[in-house]
Amino acid sequence: SAVDVHDNESVFALLGPDDVTGDEIPKAPEASYLSQNWPNPFNPATKIAFGLSAPWHVSLRIYDVSGRLVRELVNETRPAAHYEEIWDGRDGARRQVASGVYLYRLEAGSFTETRKMILLR
After folding, report:
1. Which pLDDT score is estimated for 8?
2. Residues near 39 by beta carbon (within 8 Å), at least 6 away in sequence
C-alpha cells in the first residue's frame, strides 16, 4: 500500500515483475515452424527464426546445394518457445563460404522443414 502526505492509505496491490515492466511472458507457438531467413539475399550474416510447440531435440543445419553439410547451428534439446539463430556465412571450421545458394534444415521431433537462402559476397 501507499500513504500520501495527508495520511491517506491505498489498498494493497499484488504486482509481479511482468506487471511492473509491462513485458508479457512470450508464449510457445501452437505449431512448430521454420521462417524464411532475413535478410535474403544476405551478406555477411542472416537470421533464422523458428518455433517449437513442445520440448524437442533440435537440429538446425546449413547445407550447400550438393547436400554437403556446411555447418550445424543447433544440436540440443530446447523447450517450447520462439528462437532466432544467426548464421555468419562461415562453415564448421569458421572459414567464410563462397557466394551461392544454401539450404537450411530444421528437425525437431516429427517436424522437418528445409528452406533456401542466398549468400552474396
Report:
1. 79
2. 46
